[in-house]
């Protein structure tokens, strides 16, 4: 990268001086079985160019045929975001040349989106931000380029590129907000919370895998600064390639600081596309919008207009799932979690899995404990999501039942999870195979307690004198002696009984 | 036996059905004829002798093994315009940019021909990407009109029209965006039909203007066109603009042969000034024949047809500029590296490829289209042209309230000499003045021979237009008129064409 | 063909700009040749703007159809060899294209 290091104003200073206005464009890859305009599979990660046909390769003569489920998903997304659904709308062609776009035009909706004028409520630390939705429209994804010969694998400096069109034609919904005003210093967090909220909405609808790391949820961040909340909007930049929740927050923060430094110097913000760099945490200038392509939009003549039947739309509306914020409130009440606990659950993306674990018989508190501590740690270590860890909600509930019945303790439970993850079977199988059951043999336990008392006469005296709290020290000795395979509460009872 | 290449498709079908000949014989006869005369005519860009004979043998076997009815044209060979994508057969659309491209799939039209058992003789010449009215814009050299080898065979489908005129094929497929089936038919003395838009699948036709393109039959008589129409028409889910409808048999319509009481409208705006005297004379005579046959002829006015050519030359280039963007040297076809540029970018290679791969007319229209779609011009040009299209459709609707079919000369002139209009785009565009309104409104149109012009002895054509979805009406009217004309001529018009000398 | 007017409907520079937009590397000679031809064509087609059509709905499809959908069921893809067969260059089972002028600077 050749760009000079940008001067940045410290964030607090920038916010004191300027009012940020956000705009977010989120691209969602739908999880339809087939592509937007052809019957090719959309499976992620297939061998290159194995999921292509004349249509999505843009071969001469091929014509698009619109996927009904993509349209239905688009309408459901629109409805979930409280949008109006178009009574009549069309696709258009967006004409520009790029090697990853087989037809050298993108079939996209332009001035006739299928959903428009909506809103959604985003919660941030108990506060609610209402985000106005400009539109949600359908379009197709492009192919993917691999840049060869450059030092970094980046497009810049590469000597040629290799294109895989498997992704070309996968249905996308682009969700565009109206300018988000009034977030003030919290703009970066609001941006992040909005994208996470969208993730929850889309996941609840079941229309997308919503995996930012796989690119099924992608975010462009628009940001401008103005002198005061009542001043006219400033010139905005559009930062692309912001592909994690954390990056959304960081990119907003960076642009606030960068733009503030320019404006404070009396400079002018260039309306341009910028690129987010995950590794360095900065944005760099892309092409300037002032010399932007003329996309020469016109209605796609190979497709016919879409006029969603009102009864169909009403039916889809009535079948919408509970909105995420309503669901969260309901579950928080049912589970009796504090706001802080609930925020952690939502923030870790564990709401769904905890709900399933509770449904499998676990107490809400235990489910939260396991998923947010022990299992989150393991997921982080192996860089997978909770659902990919290899432990099911049913198994967590089963482990919890083993703990509550006293057959294992928390320490042994961790070993049980090790075994389950290693593929050794159900928690019961692991307990049996690894011999993890707590020793309930009264005789063995009593001998261990006797040994502990004998070895620690001073502590024993204190307990005899009524200092019950000192029992902890003896419990530790016994547990160590038993290699952890003892029920700590049973040991405690035994010690107190012997020394009373 | 009589010369198989002189027989109509209908006659060949009968001969095949009663076992007088075989598809292999018929196909071989046409391949021989191609071998003999195509050096002079240049109707074909690619001849697939081996493939055609294999399909012919398969057709013969299918007929032999079948007890019940077989497809009516089983075993009758056909020539296919090079704009139709054919699996395993070179497909160039007359352009250098697609030289050597072997498609991995079949157009729906090609697939229907194959499943109906019509051996494909080869691919016919055309103006590059179907842009033109003379076939001179082919990157592979012009096709010559068999009536006079120094003249154009019409365009863009001059290869298809010339192939049936020269008896190289009994049937051919054409495509018609503004007249590319009908105008070549008129100037070669043959029959060409543009079906209702949506009647024949566009899947696998290399798109020129998506909202105007339509494939159709190119033949030597009306019944043959009807038989071929029945093979290729019908709903196709691969083409979203394809009409879902049970179509009546066009062959039955052609055999109906009764026009008494039929109301025929002569379009005032498609005639008179600008139309060659011989074209007008033959047209007037044909209209008189229709009156003789019991039709009621009136004059109708379609005032907005005046703007059809202008609207067409905004809509077509706009859609074409976008449709042809895919030819960029990245995935298939020609790739040209720019001269004197070390390490060129993809963008530079695209520019060099398109510069080298496209001819002048294609470049003109792409640039015109980019202009018409540019922000700032869109409303004045493309948007306005689409509104004019509505007005033209309304003119048609109004006319069809008064009459059942409309008639006009197909083309304003007979075949002009090769080279005459090559670098005068506007003069070239005027060839389609009478055929374009049908494409803009999506209605079906047919051209059939009306005779030869007194002044030059070259064929003239009459156009019959019907309301959308009523293609069958054209076949009835066309068949009646054809029968009367043939009896007046005392034989087929093509019998008057000069005999082509075989060249080696 | 009529002579282009003093102020042509489209200038040589505009033609050059459109050619770049359409990715055609026109030579100077071609620009000299095409620009006046295009000017004549544009003057001729500009007659559409004289038609009173303010309240007229545009037609984009000759036969009006709506809601033509395909069910979300897979159909066979091309064998990868067929998909790549016509490619000017192939590497790692991908279409090899010259370096792409970066959006990243």
Walk me through this protein's architecture.
Chain A is 38% helix and 19% strand. Chain A has 16 helices and 15 strands. Chain A has helices at 11-17, 68-80, 187-205, 245-264, 310-318, 324-335, 339-347, 351-359, 364-381, 393-404, 410-421, 427-434, 442-455, 457-464, 471-481, 488-498, and strands spanning 19-29, 66-67, 84-85, 92-95, 105-108, 115-124, 127-140, 144-148, 160-164, 171-177, 217-226, 237-242, 272-277, 282-288, 298-299. In chain A, strand 13 and strand 14 (282-288) form a beta hairpin. Chain B is 39% helix and 11% strand. Chain B is built from 16 helices and 11 strands. An 11-stranded mixed beta sheet of chain B has the order 1-3-2-4-6-5-10-11-9-7-8, with helices on both faces. The radius of gyration of chain B is 21 Å and the shape is globular. The mean pLDDT of chain B is 96. By secondary structure, chain C is an alpha+beta fold. Chain C has helices at residues 12-21, 28-45, 80-84, and strands at 69-70, 90-91, 94-98. Chain C has a two-stranded antiparallel sheet. The N and C termini of chain C lie far apart (48 Å). Chains B and C meet through helix 10, helix 11, helix 12, helix 13 and helix 14 of B and helix 1, helix 2 and strand 3 of C. Strand 2 of chain A pairs parallel with strand 1 of chain C, so a sheet runs across the interface.
Which helices and strands appear, and what pairs or packs with what?
The complex is a heterotrimer of chains A (500), B (504) and C (105).
Chain A: H1 11-17, E1 19-29, E2 66-67, H2 68-80, E3 84-85, E4 92-95, E5 105-108, E6 115-124, E7 127-140, E8 144-148, E9 160-164, E10 171-177, H3 187-205, E11 217-226, E12 237-242, H4 245-264, E13 272-277, E14 282-288, E15 298-299, H5 310-318, H6 324-335, H7 339-347, H8 351-359, H9 364-381, H10 393-404, H11 410-421, H12 427-434, H13 442-455, H14 457-464, H15 471-481, H16 488-498
Helix pairs in contact in A: 1-4, 3-4, 8-9, 8-10, 9-10, 10-11, 11-12, 13-15, 15-16
Chain B: H1 9-17, H2 23-41, E1 44-47, H3 49-65, E2 78-81, H4 108-115, E3 120-124, H5 158-165, E4 171-175, H6 182-188, E5 191-194, E6 215-219, H7 222-232, H8 250-256, E7 263-267, H9 277-292, E8 296-300, H10 308-323, H11 346-357, H12 360-373, H13 379-402, E9 405-409, H14 425-429, H15 436-441, E10 445-452, E11 459-465, H16 471-489
Parallel strand pairs in B: 2-3, 2-4, 7-8, 7-9
Antiparallel strand pairs in B: 1-3, 4-6, 5-6, 5-10, 9-11, 10-11
Chain C: H1 12-21, H2 28-45, E1 69-70, H3 80-84, E2 90-91, E3 94-98
């Amino acid at each position: 990268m050749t760009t000079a290091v940008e001067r940045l104003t410290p964030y607090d200073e920038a916010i004191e001086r300027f009012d940020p206005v956000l705009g977010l464009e989120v691209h969602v890859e739908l999880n339809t079985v087939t592509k937007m305009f052809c019957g090719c599979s959309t499976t992620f990660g297939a061998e290159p160019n194995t999921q292509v046909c004349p249509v999505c390769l843009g071969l001469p003569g091929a014509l698009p045929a619109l996927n009904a489920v993509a349209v239905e998903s688009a309408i459901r997304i629109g409805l979930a975001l409280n949008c109006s659904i178009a009574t009549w709308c069309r696709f258009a062609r967006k004409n520009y040349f790029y090697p990853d776009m087989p037809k050298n035009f993108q079939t996209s909706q332009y001035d006739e989106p299928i959903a428009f004028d909506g809103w959604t409520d985003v919660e941030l630390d108990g506060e609610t931000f209402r985000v106005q939705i400009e539109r949600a429209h359908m379009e197709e994804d492009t192919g993917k380029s691999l840049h060869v010969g450059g030092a970094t694998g980046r497009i810049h400096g590469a000597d040629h590129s290799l294109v895989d069109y498997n992704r070309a034609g996968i249905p996308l919904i682009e969700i565009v907000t109206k300018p988000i005003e009034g977030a003030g210093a919290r703009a970066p967090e609001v941006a992040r919370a909005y994208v996470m909220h969208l993730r929850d909405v889309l996941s609840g609808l079941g229309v997308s895998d919503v995996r930012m790391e796989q690119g099924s949820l992608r975010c462009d961040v628009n940001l401008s600064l103005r002198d005061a909340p009542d001043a006219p909007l400033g010139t905005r930049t559009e930062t692309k390639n912001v592909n994690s929740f954390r990056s959304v927050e960081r990119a907003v923060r960076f642009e606030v600081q960068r733009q503030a430094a320019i404006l404070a110097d009396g400079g002018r913000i260039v309306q341009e596309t910028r690129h987010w760099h995950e590794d360095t945490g900065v944005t760099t200038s892309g092409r300037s919008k002032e010399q932007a392509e003329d996309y020469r939009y016109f209605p796609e003549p190979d497709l016919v207009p879409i006029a969603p039947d009102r009864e169909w739309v009403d039916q889809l509306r009535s079948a919408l799932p509970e909105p995420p914020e309503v669901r969260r409130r309901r579950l928080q009440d049912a589970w009796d979690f504090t706001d802080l606990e609930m925020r952690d659950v939502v923030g870790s993306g564990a709401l769904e899995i905890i709900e399933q674990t509770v449904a499998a018989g676990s107490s809400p508190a235990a489910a939260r404990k396991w998923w947010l501590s022990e299992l989150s740690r393991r997921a982080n270590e192996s860089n997978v999501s909770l659902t990919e860890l290899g432990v099911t909600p049913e198994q967590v509930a089963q482990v919890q039942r083993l703990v509550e019945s006293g057959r294992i303790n928390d320490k042994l439970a961790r070993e049980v999870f090790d075994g389950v993850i290693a593929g050794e079977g159900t928690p019961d199988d692991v307990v049996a195979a690894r011999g993890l059951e707590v020793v309930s043999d009264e005789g063995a336990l009593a001998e261990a307690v006797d040994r502990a008392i004998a070895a620690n006469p001073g502590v024993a005296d204190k307990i005899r004198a009524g200092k019950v709290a000192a029992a902890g020290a003896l419990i530790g000795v016994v547990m160590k002696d038993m290699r952890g395979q003892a029920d700590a509460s049973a040991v405690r009872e035994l010690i107190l009984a012997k020394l009373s | 036996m009589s010369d198989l290449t002189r027989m109509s498709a209908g006659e060949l079908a009968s001969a095949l059905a009663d076992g007088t000949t075989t598809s292999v014989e018929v196909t071989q006869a046409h391949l021989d004829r191609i071998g003999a005369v195509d050096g002079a005519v240049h109707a074909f860009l690619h001849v697939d002798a081996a493939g055609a004979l294999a399909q012919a043998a398969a057709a013969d076997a299918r007929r032999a093994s079948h007890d019940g009815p077989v497809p009516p044209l089983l075993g009758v060979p056909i020539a296919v315009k090079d704009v139709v994508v054919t699996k395993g057969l070179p497909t160039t659309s007359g352009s250098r940019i697609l030289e050597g491209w072997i498609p991995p799939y079949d157009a729906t039209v090609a697939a229907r021909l194959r499943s109906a058992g019509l051996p494909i003789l080869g691919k016919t010449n055309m103006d590059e990407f179907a842009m033109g009215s003379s076939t001179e814009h082919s990157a592979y050299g012009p096709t010559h009109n068999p009536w006079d080898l120094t003249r154009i065979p019409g365009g863009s489908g001059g290869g298809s029209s010339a192939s049936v005129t020269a008896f190289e094929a009994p049937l051919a497929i054409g495509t018609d965006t503004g007249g590319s089936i009908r105008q070549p038919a008129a100037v070669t003395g043959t029959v060409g039909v543009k079906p209702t838009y949506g009647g024949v699948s566009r899947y696998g036709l290399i798109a020129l203007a998506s909202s105007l393109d339509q494939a159709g039959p190119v033949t030597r008589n009306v019944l043959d066109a009807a038989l071929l129409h029945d093979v290729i028409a019908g709903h196709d889910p691969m083409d979203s603009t394809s009409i879902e409808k049970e179509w009546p048999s066009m062959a039955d319509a052609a055999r109906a042969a009764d026009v008494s009481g039929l109301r025929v409208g002569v379009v005032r705006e498609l005639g008179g000034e600008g139309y060659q005297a011989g074209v007008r004379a033959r047209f007037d005579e044909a209209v008189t024949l229709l009156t003789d046959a019991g039709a009621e002829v009136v004059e109708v006015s379609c005032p907005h047809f005046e703007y059809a050519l202008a609207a067409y030359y905004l809509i077509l280039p706009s859609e074409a500029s976008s449709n042809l963007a895919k030819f960029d040297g990245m995935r298939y076809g020609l790739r040209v590296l720019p001269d004197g540029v070390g390490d060129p970018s993809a963008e530079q290679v695209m520019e060099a490829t398109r510069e080298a791969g496209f001819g002048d007319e294609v470049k003109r229209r792409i640039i015109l289209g980019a202009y018409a779609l540019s922000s700032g011009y869109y409303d004045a040009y493309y948007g306005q042209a689409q509104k004019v299209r509505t007005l033209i459709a309304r003119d048609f609707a109004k006319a069809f309230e008064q009459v059942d079919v409309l008639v006009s000369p197909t083309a304003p002139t007979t075949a002009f000499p090769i080279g005459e209009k090559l670098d005068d785009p506007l003069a070239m565009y005027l060839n389609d003045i009478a055929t374009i309104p049908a494409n803009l409104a999506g209605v079906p149109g047919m051209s059939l021979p009306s005779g030869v012009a007194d002044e030059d002895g070259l064929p003239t054509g009459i156009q019959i237009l019907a309301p959308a979805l009523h293609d069958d009406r054209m076949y009835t009217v066309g068949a009646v008129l054809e029968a009367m004309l043939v009896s007046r001529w005392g034989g087929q018009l093509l019998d008057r064409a000069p005999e082509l000398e075989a060249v080696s | 063909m009529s002579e282009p007017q003093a102020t042509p409907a489209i200038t040589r520079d505009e033609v050059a700009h459109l050619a770049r937009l359409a990715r055609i590397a026109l030579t100077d000679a071609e620009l000299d040749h095409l620009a006046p031809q295009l000017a004549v064509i544009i003057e001729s087609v500009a007659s559409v703007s004289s038609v009173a059509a303010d309240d007229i709905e545009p037609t984009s499809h000759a036969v009006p159809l709506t809601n033509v959908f395909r069910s979300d069921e897979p159909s066979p893809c091309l064998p990868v060899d067929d998909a790549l067969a016509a490619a000017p260059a192939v590497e790692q089972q991908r279409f090899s294209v010259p370096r792409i002028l970066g959006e990243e600077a």
